[in-house]
């Protein structure tokens, strides 16, 4: 089944969804599609239902009674029944659904968490009907989709009723950074990094910016003012909505403050707690919720077990916390130009620097394995203590080989990333020092030193040092 031309990329996802929807088995099949808001879940599964002649039902926030009548109406319409079936309970509705000719499927239920929040028994009801259908040899294809990551994650976990019944479990993620460049139709890699630092790889944000893609690096400032900071563009309010919608939390103040702390560079649990004025133990739950919902991610320190740091996973949220939040009133009244001019220093130090480091780590993941000698086992950042010099060395891009039991772990590469600095001898010396210190505990015999720069390299660098410029960063597209 051909992917519609309007769907950019997502070839892998489409192929698997199409296979799921068109495979005929002699047993019922369950698919679960999840992913953060705005990543294009509905876009994919609606097209799928459309092309296969299946049912698409998008649930809304509603009472059980109203949801049942909406579901009945959608089903009746799909089956061409003059009067829609009426259901008093989900029990009835699901039994009815499983009695429908499976050829009328797949049956796609989008925004499933809206339903299960109001009717918590729904997953068990599906479980029961799937099991019954299995023993009766009925081959109903059911696809559940939703974005409240915590709910969707729980659907298949541990002792959950649907555990072990899914045949397809798919998470729709943002486009990878090099795909985002293509999606925004940007040629200049420098501009692509800048744009990615604001809108990341979330597909919907291109439409939220009214399809306005910056023309050149010189146009970037103006583009920020025209889009992310523009009160008539949905991008302006998006970061706020994300938090409320994604997590349906009540005390959103503390969540916002935790995100602000991380965006401002407080990356350890203690540092975050200090910033928000709470005890470390008081924010544990909030960190877990933010991580479950995909807004925060934990970046382990490769060299120091148990010393993880937190990162904001969605670039727009960082941008909001650093640039927009403190100037909300001015932005809503349309003073974007002034706000951006004043915020640019903070943007350069708190947003683009760390963002570029992350892109370089993503690059290491996508780079051809020959570049580092072999396929990496783990990529991350790490801190090396330098006791003799009473300091520490932060290594931005650490590429480790896959660990083999009983052997010293092999470091494939140690790299430093600088967005705004021409890199040269002194950067390499720091990396050499790190390699020397690490050689006590790790196999560094083949460690490649790497400089990643957004501003270029000094001409007389040791040719053994790997230099990754902006063009190289984007030369990974398969
Ligand atoms: N692969 C894609 N190619 C082109 N545009 C896309 C793609 N995926 C998403 N979009 C754009 O992003 C918009 C938002 O996608 P969609 O509504 O499907 O996201 P979602 O994951 O269902 O989000 P939500 O959880 O908020 O419902 C789409 O309407 C479309 O404009
Ligand atoms: Mg959707």
Q: Which descriptors apply to this entry?
A:
single chain; 478 residues; alpha/beta; Rossmann fold; Arc Repressor Mutant, subunit A; 4 domains; five-stranded parallel sheet; 20 helices; binds adenosine-5'-triphosphate; binds magnesium ion
What does this structure look like?
The chain has 478 residues and is an alpha/beta fold. The protein has 4 domains: 11-171, P-loop containing nucleotide triphosphate hydrolases (Rossmann fold); 175-218, no CATH class; 228-334, Arc Repressor Mutant, subunit A; 363-473, Trna Endonuclease, Chain: A, domain 1, CATH 3.40.1350. The chain is built from 20 helices and 12 strands. The chain has helices at 11-22, 41-52, 64-79, 90-99, 112-118, 122-136, 149-155, 177-183, 189-199, 204-208, 220-226, 235-247, 252-263, 269-276, 284-292, 315-324, 328-332, 336-366, 425-438, 470-473; strands at residues 29-34, 55-58, 107-110, 141-146, 166-171, 296-299, 309-312, 376-386, 391-401, 411-418, 448-453, 466-468. The strands form 3 sheets. The chain has a 5-stranded parallel beta sheet with strand order 2-3-4-1-5, with helices on both faces. α19 (425-438) links the parallel β10 (411-418) and β11 (448-453). α1 packs parallel to α2 and α13 packs across α14 (269-276). The longest helix has 31 residues, at 336-366. The radius of gyration is 25 Å and the shape is globular. The two termini are 23 Å apart. Magnesium ion (MG) binds next to α2. The site of magnesium ion has 3 residues, from α2.
